[in-house]
Amino acid sequence: xxxxxxxxxxxxxxxxxxxxxxxxxxxxxxxxxxxxxxxxxxxxxxxxxxxxxxxxxxxxxxxxxxxxxxxxxxxxxxxxxxxxxxxxxxxxxxxxxxxxxxxxxxxxxxxxxxxxxxxxxxxxxxxxxxxxxxxxxxxxxxxxxxxxxxxxxxxxxxxxxxxxxxxxxxxxxxxxxxxxxxxxxxxxxxxxxxxxxxxxxxxxxxxxxxxxxxxxxxxxxxxxxxxxxxxxxxxxxxxxxxxxxxxxxxxxxxxxxxxxxxxxxxxxxxxxxxxxxxxxxxxxxxxxxxxxxxxxxxxxxxxxxxxxxxxxxxxxxxxxxxxxxxxxxxxxxxxxxxxxxxxxxxxxxxxxxxxxxxxxxxxxxxxxxxxxxxxxxxxxxxxxxxxxxxxxxxxxxxxxxxxxxxxxxxxxxxxxxxxxxxxxxxxxxxxxxxxxxxxxxxxxx
Length: 445
Hints:
The longest helix has 10 residues, at 15-24. The protein has helices at residues 15-24, 29-33, 42-45, and strands spanning 173-174, 184-187, 193-194, 229-230, 233-234, 241-242, 246-247, 260-261, 264-265, 277-278, 281-282, 289-290, 294-295, 325-330, 336-342, 374-375, 378-379, 386-387, 391-392, 425-426, 429-430, 437-438, 442-443. Among the domains are: 1-44 and 76-121, no CATH class; 395-445, no CATH class. A hairpin with a 6-residue loop joins β5 (233-234) and β6 (241-242). Strands 1-2-3 form a 3-stranded antiparallel sheet, with no helix packed on it. A two-stranded antiparallel ribbon has the order 4-7. A two-stranded antiparallel ribbon has the order 5-6. By secondary structure, it is mainly β. Mean pLDDT is 76; it is low at 1-81. It is elongated and about 155 Å long. It is 4% helix and 13% strand.
């Protein structure tokens, strides 16, 4: 009986393919293996098998070629096909014959079947990606990312692929020893091992005489054991609680959950928080830093390391620093500034270092050099500045203000009118240089 062979590949058959194969099985096996001899075979006529040369002396009436048929035709042609006596190859007869890869009798080229020329149609495992395949790597390796069914490997397909601990719920595997005492491993929906059904330390469930197991600490806490905080854990043998991460505020040890503890703190200081100095401490609850001992220049507070801050000079003065007088100041770094201090006596008639002026000694300055219109510049009584009160302000014609040296300014006429100037009526105005009135608008009847 002939069978359809695909080089060990497992190929699905269509219903038409199976019917054709069953039909082909009904052919007499003896007829296929021992076909009848071709017509004119010498084995039936009794002639010498070696005598195949046609008789050229006969006209065919009294006797012809001993290998011919009644019609005198050529014995090399006919139904037998060739000289070997093998049956002819017919593609589509559902019989696998020489030179054929397959023959399912349908030969419609559908997936997993045969092409019309008796060659293989696309099938899973041919190394070429067909339309209905997720992959096709041309091998029979199940765990290489492409299954033998030409589907892409996914968690839940029952095949343990790279990166998966398991695949499928029914592992039926014993929990590993000595980590566990018994039970069966399970597989999660994410293809990782589930030890929840295992019995013993490490399954995360309190069993037997266990004090704790993994995250299950039986409701215990650092606070419940008298600590101020921290994270309690379980020993590796499930026989006791691990309190190494529990802590007490005030013990001088920086425990988990504490920002600081007395002098134990992270590498921070007052300058970390923008201050210029001071001492940073820890709060009483160890959950933050106490910055009350920190200070900054410019905050208006005279801090321990500051000589001054703004107008706060403490008890310092020019005189306390050895000068004969002057005004002590504070610089931007909260240090004392002696720039305005001096070592001379104001009023002695001598212009000393640190003095701006001395009596009539004005260092060449005048009211006009200082931007005034005129006047007599004087020296202040402390010799540190000029007295500009005798100076007259500079005038500006056109600003509408009646200033020194001006008769009028724009609309400011100093009370004058056409009538006050002897005219009967009209509109008085000011000249452009503010030095007189414009009378063109005044009239006399």
